[in-house]
Amino acid sequence: MANLTNTNNDLGSVILQDAEFRDELLTLAGADTLLEGTILARSTASDKLVIFVKGGSTAGNGVPKAVLTYQVVAAGAGDVSVRAMVGGAVRKERLVIDADGDDSNVDAVVLDQLRDYGITSTDVQELNILDNA
Q1: Which residues contact 74 (CB under 8 A, 6 or more apart)?
Q2: Of 52, 32, 30, which is closest to residue 114 (Cα–Cα)?
């Protein structure tokens, strides 16, 4: 007889309410998998979205302006078409800085910068995630 396994299904989303989207091109320097909730910036050189770098000072990469609402997988360097969230409310704990892979360095400065561009964040206690452990 096979062993029983528990599977936790996370039904939450980074989007909280009133989301506004825009079709954009995202420029990547190489192969990458960007998680749902990844914060994006806009390159001042190309006017395309790029990965947000906390404290970044290269062509606008340190100013967050959009959030991915789904996972994006790129096989190599180049542009990828995305529909980025450019306004609305998000769940703070689901925001991701790509270099970290989570929200551990999403602080008040980053949240204030996002708010400057119409994206507000709220701490939310997820009640739909069952702990089967």
Answers
A1: 28, 30, 31, 32, 33, 34, 80
A2: 52
Q: Which domains does the chain have, with CATH numbers?
A: 17-122 (2.40.300.10)
Q: What is the dihedral of CA 46, 63, 16, 102, to 10 degrees?
A: 100
Contact 82, 30 (CB under 8 A): no
Q: Is residue 133 over pLDDT 60?
A: no
> What is the model's pTM?
0.86
* Nearest residue to 129 via CA among 37, 18, 3, 8: 8
pLDDT per residue as tens digits for the range 15-50:
888 999 999 999 999 999 999 999 999 999 999 999
